[in-house]
What does this fold into?
Amino acid sequence: MTPRMDNPSLVVPGALQPLLDLTEVIGKVGVPQTTLDLVRLRVSEINGRVYTFPDDPEQADERLPRVASWRAESCFDEAERSALEMAEAVTLMTDPQDMASDEVWEKSAQYYTDEQLGALVMHIGLVNFWNRVNIATRQEAAAWR
It folds into this structure.
């Protein structure tokens, strides 16, 4: 499918830098980058945003192809599982009044501080934003980085 336009974050003057700044801030509160990457991929899978992965397995986490079936995989630790569960709850919004149930929230709170949980929820929201912009404008599949 041909993109409808260049990426809006590049077309709208001044739009890209605040998004990059937010990404940077989120990455500084102690949530491991590997966890943020797993969450980014899971949210993107749910939204239908496609990524291409490098052929060299040393350039990407070997667990990435297993993210969609994280519940059945033993390679994710409990903190990662709680983050993936939070990502699904917030992205799917099955109950918009209570997106992340108390149970989901409390599980994540066992592994992350309030600051980290706030960053995790913001990361999920930001990934959803990027996905929606990219899908709406039919951007090409993104190379995983």
Observations:
- The radius of gyration is 15 Å.
